[in-house]
Amino acid sequence: MGVQGKGRISALLTVFTIALLVASCGNKRSMKTAVAPAAALPQPVARTLQPLPMRPLSAKLQAMRERAMQRASALRGLEWTADVGMTELSGWEYGQRASEMAQVLGGDDLRALGRLASAGGALPEGVDLAQLAASFAAVSAGAVYSPLDHQVILVDKFKGDSLLTHEFTHALQDQHFDLLKLLVQRPYNFDRTEAMFSVVEGDAVNVQRRDEEGETYARKPLDDIARSEGARLGSYREDVGSFFPKLLTETFIFRYRDGARFIEAVRRRGGERAVDDLFTNPPASSEQILHPEKYFQSEAAREVQLDESLFAANGWKLAASTPLGEIGVRGLLMEGVGDDEAVRAAAGWGGDRAYLFERAGATPLFVWKTVWDKQTDAQEFFRAYTSLQNKRQGAQVGVNSSASESQAIWREAERTTIAWISNDTVIIVRGAEADAGTALEFAKR
């Protein structure tokens, strides 16, 4: 995917990875050992979509296609192994296609992860995440590469610009590294998937910008690259992004802004072959994208797990679980605190995992365990999360503190939220009042 000027954003058409408020991009128009839930076990990708209509391209579009293929190959240093077609769809056709893609590539998983987000308070109750994903893609679409169809799709009378070089870079990635295999991995991991998406997007942005700016791009300070991409996406954040949760828009922007900075850092260190290596030895977390030195040093996240057997013994069934990562924490906090404060509060992330437990006839139970690099980092996150909850639910109804731990409590309708901190660990629990306290005790173990 990529960005051009104020308005054009292209998209890699893998709607599945919009799971848990992550969306496919497009063109803005004015148990000590965790047990994976059944929905997250490896399954083959279903191929039930009808073939795309192949419409003759105008001479102008055909010339643009040939130029984009040549430039993408030359700049990326990869040869074409097969031809790549290009076709045009109307906005309505693309919207329908996006909806079908969401179902084919994981509608059930999206719904389970949507329930997790709702249980955690990040989405309204009853939101169908598969349809939210499709709606986001449809409202944003301009030019996309579809790895299911191995085609570049032009949406709604695409006029043409350097985004085609960007899209054909995705086609090259697919031919050499198999994008579906990289992006649709089981068990699903939000943080890992966002890190992989930032590699895919950052690589294509890098090729697009070098096509546009030539050698000037290679001399830009890395932070200027991130600022430039952020500025290009500013109008998107204010317009289309304003209709969607900030967790969705921030992770979307992260792929371009921080992905572009990360890829250029890697390219300057080891050239195009080092970028190739990212597809076989990808960053393990969004933290490594945001802080490239942590990728170079192979600094891994701390493993976080609950003893799921304690919940199972009380009749709870694990419905979904995933790490949110530094970028997920940042996007979530942005709903209640300023952007700069959210960035600072997320920066000390050491590891996390969010869980959704369900039981017949009971209010769903959300448990989120986070660990931080230092105690002061945990305290900063705890303060920011408290501000978020105060904005969502009003003042706390309970505060308990001792020399070694603190907790805050909020109540709304049929749900109680508890935020607990001790040393470098913060745990968030949300569920029925009768269950929340017990779940917190289980999560502490």
Q: How big a fraction of the residues is strand?
A: 15-25%
The biggest sheet, with number of strands, parallel, antiparallel or mixed sense and barrel status, is: 7 strands, antiparallel
Question: How many E-type strands?
Answer: 13
Mean pLDDT across every amino acid position: 84
Counting DSSP H or I runs of 4 or more residues, the number of helices is 17
Q: Considering DSSP H and I runs of 4 or more, what fraction of the residues is helical?
A: 40-55%
Q: Between the first and last Cα atoms, what is the distance in angstroms? A: 43 Å
H/E element order: EEEHEHHHEEHHHHHHHHHEHHEEHEEEEH
Structural class: alpha+beta
> Using only CA atoms, what is the Rg?
22 Å
Question: What overall geometry do the principal axes of the alpha carbons give?
Answer: globular
Biggest sheet, strands in spatial order?
7-8-9-13-12-11-10
Tell me the domain tally.
2
* Poorly predicted sequence stretches spanning 5 or more consecutive residues: 1-47
